[in-house]
Structures are given as structure tokens and as C-alpha cells.
Amino acid sequence: MEIFKGTKVHDFMGKRIPFLSLSAVLVVVSLVLLFTRGLNLGIDFAGGTLVQVQYDHKAPIDKIRTVLNATDYKGSSITKFGSEDEVVIRVSGVSSNLANDIGDEMHKLLDSTGEFQIRRVDMVGPKVGGELREKGIMALSLSLIVILIYVSYRFEWRFAIASILALAHDVIIALGAISLVGVEVNLDILAAILTILGYSLNDTIIVFDRIREGVQTSKEAVLDKVVNTSVSRTLSRTTLTSLTTFFVVATLYFFGGEIINGFAFTLLVGVIVGTYSSIFIAASFLVQLRFSIESFRAKEAEKVKRQKEKEKMRAMYEKGTV
Amino acid sequence: MKIFNYRLVIFILSIIFGVVFSVPSFLQTETGKKISLGLDLQGGLHMLLGVQTNEAVTSKIKSTATAVKYFANDEDILIDGLSIKDNDRIVFTVLDQDELPKVDKMLEQISGLQITKNDLDYSLTLTPEEEVKTKDQAVAQAVETIRNRLDQFGLAEPNVVRQGETDIVVQLPGIKTAAEEKAARELISKPANLELMAVDEERADQVYTMSRAQAAQYGDIILEATDNPSVKYLVKEIPILNGSQVVDAQVAFDQSNQPIINFTLNSAGARIFGDFTAKNVGKRLAVVLDGKVYSAPNIRERIGGGSGQISGGFTVVEAGNVAIALRSGALPASVKLLEKRSVGPSLGADSIKASTIALVSGFLIVFMFMIIYYRRAGVIANVALVTNIFIIISVMAMFGATLTLPGMAGIVLTVGMAVDANVIITERIRELLRQGLSIPKAVEDGYSNAMRAILDANITTLLVAVILYAYGTGPIKGFAVTISIGILASMLTAILGTHGIYEALLPKIAKDKNLNKWFGIK
After folding, report:
1. Is the overall model pTM greater than 0.90, yes or no?
2. ipTM
3. How many angstroms separate the CA of residue A104 from the nearest CA in chain B?
């Protein structure tokens, strides 16, 4: 079976301004969402306590609220979780006392609300939340620096900048979607964001490799045309890999259960945005950054020349003429 | 054609490796290393505890003060005003000028002290190095103590490890009920700090009218009785003995069949205890556990042999837990709960069920899709994919890695991305075939053309994964591990392995020349 025959060259770069504009709008909307609505930080980052309770009948949310409002846990949020029977209670406080914690107290307090079992208690102290936040940002920044260095070394600095821009594009839009839907941001969502980062980078580098190859092997002097050919040639691979990944992530989203829902949603958005950006956006940055085929070829030629000279010298040395 | 197909040989070896070492994980047999399930999947308790290391410094100062007092008694040196200021400083005054050299010599023998002397007044603090060392030891000892206690509590595979400078991670898989969890938490948090203290008989009657500040002036503290907070005792601040000299503790029963705890002291402790009781017949000795007075019996005679008992309102279970705690040693400093995650077993089971459904169905879709799209090339890619999964599980099992929910998601994602290498290669081969190259040439060039892109993509992802591992915690670390192993495994299976298969099949494919059957193109 073939979807793309691979012979037709699409004019992606000719339409780059509309696509870049669309992306600009998406990024701006995402940023506005992030700054106005913000992220719904879960207890991993904000600190606090989460208690997941499963009743053996429909959860009496109003009753739970009445009971809790009479205690120190006034104003805690109570939401349905997955089924009708299950609720999650979020409390902003934490208890550092090992012998008696919020889970124990909830057990006593909720005693009058019916038959239930506490399925999960997560408590994250403020210090831990702060540390997790710090470490997350640190890991993210370092990853970006390493990518910049590696891609600059293997390709050229404009490729590195373009790939980072494409990454930022994908991550910002994914974060925007998270903010819009109100997904609770916990460590696993961070893991999902980092996966998007890896996935999008993977995609972009495959496309860039084709462009590098095109620049090196073809005689074409116009960058737009090289890019169009390269992107068209990788189109089949990009869509196919995205489709398989999409299938897996979609099954995760639909069948993975409530606990993995936010994670799968983030990945789903990431795969879609990542695919779009590696086809329509990443290479456009390269063109916008005025990557010069001529100077790249000149540099490559210089490299080859130096290599040859070295080999020549070695050959002479080995023959004993020096 | 090559006579020796080293790629195929390596691939077959890696298949054997993957299958053999993942069997224990799949069947969950007892023998062999298997992947352990994270607490989110099997249920259990995860805690991050912070050791209050400042308390360890205070208690070190306290025990130094005890040593000074004991030495002064022993040598008949008169000292006055021996007390602890600001929790980190011992002060005292030597009354007789002539005895200063003796005191100095004694202090020299205690290492890690910073001594400030003003005429006859002494002030002792810990040196900065000693303070760091004390804090460090406190955390190490807390890890040891908690581990011992949990081992004796009879839980399966408790895991206690230090994290960073002051924190301890405790993981208890297999905790089922809230009551069980609570008991475990109480056992961990119990300081089990046993102290034997002298009651200040001179001022004992004033205890109900005295403030704590007044008591401090006499070098005394006021403690409450464990069974009745309104009963108060005035005791000397500096204990005669502390729990570090306890070598054994057992539950026993007294005449009225109430549970009590018998404890045994080591030889140094026994000597101090014997000397003290000999000199203080008729006075009271308070048995203090965690700052509460359990009993304060009259000393009738010298108590040799170094054993004593704690009585007072225990239940049998409580007495058992206190005995465990005493035997395992005191916590050198109290611990605070910084993070806690407890997952009930039913939730864990639900998570396993849901993610298995997602895993298997995700697999099947990718599988069918690859076969429909690439025909036999898809079958070859699928062989590599399955091997990849086996290798990931084997390697994780060998390193004793833990499979968590995000880790499982990581595997699911690796599945999606692992086919990528083969998709790239097969697309390249198709491209070359369309250009009219012969099949063997197209396969060889397809691999070499695709290689640079795959390597660059994999290396960048690997670099990012390494950084995530170094800086990440919990699920992120697990995720980084799964992805790193997945990438390395896919280099082995998807690049080397499939190439080996093609090499072996090439004569057949070249003879067959059916491009649709082998590569899915017309």
C-alpha cells in the first residue's frame, strides 16, 4: 500500500507565510491562555493533598461537602473522578505529622457519608513541590542547550535555532491546549511534555537530515526548492510514523482510564502539533533565517579539502617521503 | 552474498537474550530477576521523609553534657551550673582553680568540641565539621533504624533509601488497609528515645507551681506522665542514660498481666546505671520515653546487671511496637513527612488492567497497519518491534528497574516511535526501487542513506533522556530510563536486526522480484 508515491514535489515553502501566520496565531493564543487562565497546577507542583474515594454507590458529593465544610477542610474541592462512584477531594493543606495524616482524618470525617474505601492519598509538601518545579525547569533548560550544541555541531547553527524554535512552537501550543482544557498539571504531564519535546525533535531532525542531504548532493541552488523536495520526500515517513504513534496514544487516551487521561491528552495534542510543525513549520524557519546553500557548500568543500590534505600527508608520511 | 551474516547472528542472540530474561517478568515467577511493579501499579505506600538534623546536634550536645557530668562525679570535681543554652552550647563553671588541668584533659578526649574558656567558665559547642558529620550520621542512622524497624514489622520488601542531604525515601509495597498503613507510619515516626532521668527530689514538691523557665534555672525540666498529663515530674535536664545504650528490649507481662517492656543495657550503660542507683538509694528514677514519664519508681538498692523495665498503660500491640522501636535504636532526630503517596491495591489493579488494554490494543493496531502498508517489510519490522519490547523488559529486569504507570506509557510510546526507524529505512528502499535500482542495491543503499538521519535523531533524544534522568525525579526518571533503553534496543533490533534479516532473505527476494509482496509497492 502506498499513500504518497514520493515523486510529486509539493510547494510547501511557497505557502510558508500562511502557515507561519497560522502558527503565530496559535502560539499567541496559547501564550494569552497561559498568562490569563494559567495552568491548573496539581499537588505535585503546588503542594497539597489529594484523596481519592470510591463509594459502593453513587458518590454523595453534596453530603461530603456539608461534612467537610464543618471542619478545617472547608473549601476543599470535590470532583467526580471517572465514574459516578468515585470522587477526588483536593485539600490545600498538608500534614507533616507522620502519625496522623489527612488520609486518616478523612476516614473518620467521611464515616457518615456511606460505605467507601480510600483508594489513593497523595500529599506533597511545599518544599518538595518547589524542588520538583526547580528541577523540571533545570532539566528543560539543559536539554535545550544540549540540543543546540549537538545540532549546531552536526548541521549548522541555523538548523539548531530552527529546531529549537520548532520545539518551542510545539510545546507552547501543547501547553495552551492543556490550559484551555484545564488538565491538572502533575509530574506525569511534565513527562508527557518532555516526550513531545523528544518526539518533535526526532521528527524535525529527520526532515533536516533530508535537507542537509539535498544541499550536499543536488545541484539545486534555490533553498526553497531543496526544502520542498526534501519535505515531500519525507512526507510519507512523517505521516506514517505519526499515524502509528497517534494510534497508540489514542488507545491510551480512550482506554487508559481516568488516571492516565491527562497524560494521553497532552501526548495526543503533541503528536498532532509535532507532525504539523515538522512538515509545515520547521523548515520555514530555516528559510526565514536565510540559510545560505552556497556558504554551506563552501564550508563542506573546505572540510573535504582538509580531509584530503590530511590523507595525502599521511600517505606521504607512510611512504617515507617526509 | 556474504557467507557469514554477523547481523543476523547478533539479532538472534538478542532475541534469545530478550526472551530468556523477560520470562520471569511476564510469568511473575519467583526465580530470576523480574521487573518490579511500581507502587502506583501494585498498591502501597511511598513517603519522602525529612530528617530534622538540627535535633541531632542538640542531642549530641546533650550526651556530651552527660559525659561531662559523669566524669565530674567520677573524679570528684566540683562544677556548677552545668546546663545547655540555645540547644547548641554547654556551659559550666569549675569551682576549684586547681582542677582546671584535669577538666581540660578530659575535654581533650571528646573529639569535635570547640572550647571557649573564660577564667573558670567553660562554654562548649561542636566544631562546624563535627556538626556536619553529626547531621550526616543522623540521616544515615535514621535510614538504618527505619529499615530495621520495618524489617521486624514483617512487611514484604520495604525499601528505605537516602535521598540528598537530609531526606529519606520509604517505599512499602503490599500495604493493604488504612490501619496497616497507619501502624507502619507510627512505627517509623516513633523516636523511641528512652532516657533514664533523676527526679530532682529537693524541689519536687514545687513542680506544680513552677514555670518551665524557673525549672531551667535549676537545670531541671518538667515532664508529664504518659497516662495522666496532669501528673508532673521535675527531673534533671541531663539524663543519666539514653537509649543508645539499650541493646535489647522484649515484651513481658507483670504480676497483674499487664504488658511491660524489659530492656537490657550494654556494659557501659550497666556500669553507669549501677553506680547511679548505688549513690541514689531512696530517690526516684524517672523512666522517660519520648519525653513522657512512664514510671518513676523509688530506688531501693543498687541495680546491677543492667536491665530495667518500662511499665504503664501499654496495649499488647503498642508494647510490641515500642519494643521493636527500642531494639532498632532511637531515631537520632525526628522525621517529618514531606511527601506521601498511597495507592490502594484495587486502584493499582485497575491501572494495570486499563494500561494493559491500551498497550495490547495499541500494539495490535500498529502491527496490522505495518503489515497492510509494507507487507513483508512490515512483518520484518514487527519482528524487530517485538524483540525490542522483550529487550526493554529484560534490561529493566536486570537492573531491578521499577515499572510505573508513566513508564508503561513510555513503553507504549516507544512502540510508536520504534517502528519509526524501520519506516524511514523502508521508505528509503522504496524510493530507490522506484528509481529503478536492483533489489540488493536498493536495500543496501536504503540502509546507508537512512542511517545518518536515524543516528542523529536517536542521539539527540538519548542526550535529552540522559539529562532527564540526571535531573528528574520519580516518574520522569522512570520515563527517561524506559526511553533510553528503548532507543538503544531499537538501534540493535530495528537497524542491525532487520538488516540481517534482509541479508538472509535477499537471494529469495531478488529471485522473486515481487515488489508488492515484499515492500508493498506496485
Report:
1. no
2. 0.84
3. 7
